[in-house]
Design brief:
Immunoglobulin-like, Jelly Rolls, about 600 residues, six-stranded mixed β-sheet, 45 strands, mainly beta, eight-stranded mixed β-sheet, 4 domains, about 10% helix, single chain, Copper Amine Oxidase, Chain A, domain 1
């Protein structure tokens, strides 16, 4: 029922967007090249078309760091064909390079028959459809320039060059041969400096207006770091496989520095891009000796972290972890069933008092599904934990009683489960992680023994939340802040528990798994922020100003860094949340890279 209602709602919204003012596609005669200039501002209904002020019914928006524009208005302004198909309940756009169908009710967009998720490049707001500018530009003759400082985009469309005929004007029995497409492009200017981004204006077209699904570039680069003359060649294909003649142009790169090869990705690469190890190598070797940077650290010990996991599957039922708490704690569990029969992972809490009940409250929680991929999907559970914030969920435990606080779904052979919970008790309780048979209750566990194995990890951290206050307002040069190496903060300690044995001396953590970092940066001017897993591997989740940063599915290795954020110059603060999973390897480097303006 929910899926049907959601689909109907999305279809109704899109219908509202597109039925007004849209008509069926009709033959259009070839026209000479003309230029249309647009300027739009994120969050503002005022725009400019060929220097004329206009008002939009829905303003552009910044979504996940990307510029989104109202597709209906832009399509009208740039004379792109956009219609609403009542039969298929889709919006259909025909550009010089693609046939695009928008179907939000199925969360799908088809580009020349190939599907992509609707919500990856489009969004419905106030009954209007917004699409990602960068994505749309690849399927049109449109060029654009985005300005971070003003949060504005300037669009230019050079129209369709005149052609001998359009096949859509021929009679059905006409036997005239399908024409070949024309490849053509222009550089933004004749010469560029070392490290200066190259602007390409695509002027290719198909005389038959069938779109150009195939582009083959040779020699094309976004930037050049060596002087000389370079030749770039383009060949295009139309929807019927006809190939154009190659079109080539040469560009001259002057021996004048603009931006270094190391600095270039910090200035121009899209957020979420992976940077080479070489791009950060010299930065990560720096120590925190810059007097222009101030860092204050807080590691409160008011919430302990109880981390229980195993390197190998659990081969029998029994107790895996036990610890006493009184107050706040973070519970972190990750185990795999290695038995031939189904089992469940339970978190059991027992009230130590025989005279008074205990109230246990949950403030934040995240759980995985039963899966054979639990060991490699820990980052997803951590990501959900950072995003979740419960009002409060409470459980009352009677005097001397034991209850199952959480029970996983049934786990088959090889399936695992991960759970992370922030709890608070108003009295002393025993917390146990235990593998049980499906349906068993706490009173049936009397014969269960404490399992002993070198593969079991039973760690207790006095600290589960860490905060950094970084004053980088006077920072002038790139610098790296180490997490987990003791250069900036005291390393987090963990006590290895062996049930029934006194705890050993605390040792430095090798992963910081389950510890939540809140890093607040104060800054002036533009800055890029990146993360580099110097210790070998990062598994976990990161949010910047509340937005989740998409990580590689297999984690991040020490061969690459990831670009987390780039400020526009108007931001004065950045808030970074970071939490690592069980497989993480310390240390990590948080890289701060000032971006002075280039002329």
């Amino acid at each position: 029922m929910f899926r049907m209602v959601a689909a109907a709602k999305a279809t109704l919204l899109l219908s509202t967007v597109l039925t007004v003012g849209l008509t069926n596609i009709s033959p259009v005669a070839a026209v000479s090249v003309s230029s249309t200039q647009l300027q739009l501002f994120a969050g503002k209904s005022e725009a400019f078309m060929n220097t004329q002020r206009v008002t939009l019914d829905e303003p552009p928006a910044m979504i996940n760091g990307q510029f989104y524009l109202p597709i209906k208005w832009v399509a009208d302004a740039l004379r792109m064909q956009l219609i609403w198909d009542e039969h298929t309940q889709t919006a259909q756009m025909l550009t010089s390079k693609a046939f695009i169908q928008f179907n939000p009710s199925l969360n799908q967009i088809q580009v020349n028959g190939k599907p992509i998720p609707f919500n990856s490049v489009a969004e419905i707001r106030n009954g209007r459809m917004l699409v990602n500018l960068t994505w749309l530009a690849t399927y049109t003759n449109m060029t654009y320039r985005f300005d971070f400082a003003s949060q504005s985009a300037e669009l230019a469309d050079y129209g369709e060059p005149a052609s001998a005929y359009k096949e859509s004007t021929l009679r059905k029995d006409d036997t005239q041969q399908n024409s070949r497409p024309i490849a053509k492009f222009a550089f933004g200017k004749a010469t560029y400096r070392l490290g200066e981004p190259i602007t390409y204006t695509d002027l290719s077209y198909d005389p038959d207006s069938e779109g150009l699904p195939g582009y083959d570039w040779k020699g094309k680069q976004d930037v050049f770091f060596k002087p000389g003359t370079y030749t770039v060649t383009l060949t295009v294909k139309d929807g019927k496989g006809n190939e154009s003649e190659p079109f080539s142009q040469s560009i001259q790169i002057l021996d004048i520095p603009y931006i270094s090869e190391q600095a270039y990705p910090f200035y121009f690469k899209p957020l979420g891009s992976l940077l080479s190890k070489e791009a950060v190598a010299s930065i990560t070797k720096q120590s925190l000796v810059d007097p222009t940077l101030s860092v204050s650290i807080a590691q409160p010990e008011n919430r302990r972290l109880l981390l229980g996991s195993s390197k190998k599957p659990i081969m029998e039922k029994g107790f895996l972890f036990q610890e006493k708490i009184n107050g706040q704690a973070r519970l972190y569990t990750q185990y795999i069933n290695g038995m031939n029969s189904n089992a469940q992972l339970a978190v059991m809490i027992r009230n130590q008092s025989d005279t008074r009940p205990v109230l246990v409250s949950t403030t934040t929680a995240a759980e995985s599904q039963a899966s054979v991929y639990t060991s490699i999907l820990g980052s997803k559970t951590v990501e959900n934990f950072l995003a979740n914030q419960l009002d409060s969920d409470s459980l009352t435990i009677n005097p001397g009683a034991a209850v199952f606080y959480k029970v996983s779904p049934e786990l088959g052979l090889g399936q695992g489960f991960q759970g992370i919970y922030d709890i608070k008790s108003d009295g002393a309780v025993d917390v146990s992680y235990v593998m049980v048979a499906p349906g068993e209750q706490p009173y049936q566990l009397g014969d269960y023994r404490n399992l002993q194995s070198k593969e079991l990890r039973r760690s207790v951290f006095p600290v589960s939340d860490v905060s950094w206050q970084v004053d980088a307002r006077s920072l002038k040069a790139p610098i790296s802040l180490g997490i987990g190496d003791g250069s900036v903060e005291p390393t987090l300690k963990e006590v290895i528990r062996d049930m029934g044995v006194e705890p050993v001396q605390p040792v430095s953590s090798v992963s910081n798994a389950g510890a939540r970092y809140r890093i607040n940066l104060e800054l002036n001017g533009k800055m890029a922020v990146a993360l580099y897993p110097r210790g070998g591997f990062f598994e976990g989740a990161i949010r910047v100003n509340g937005n989740v940063i998409s990580m590689p599915g297999a984690g991040l290795t020490s061969n690459e860094a990831i670009l987390l954020h780039r400020t526009s110059g108007s931001e004065k603060k950045i808030e970074i949340e970071l939490m690592t999973a069980e497989s993480n390897q310390l240390p990590l480097d948080l890289i701060l890279y000032p971006l002075p303006d280039k002329q």
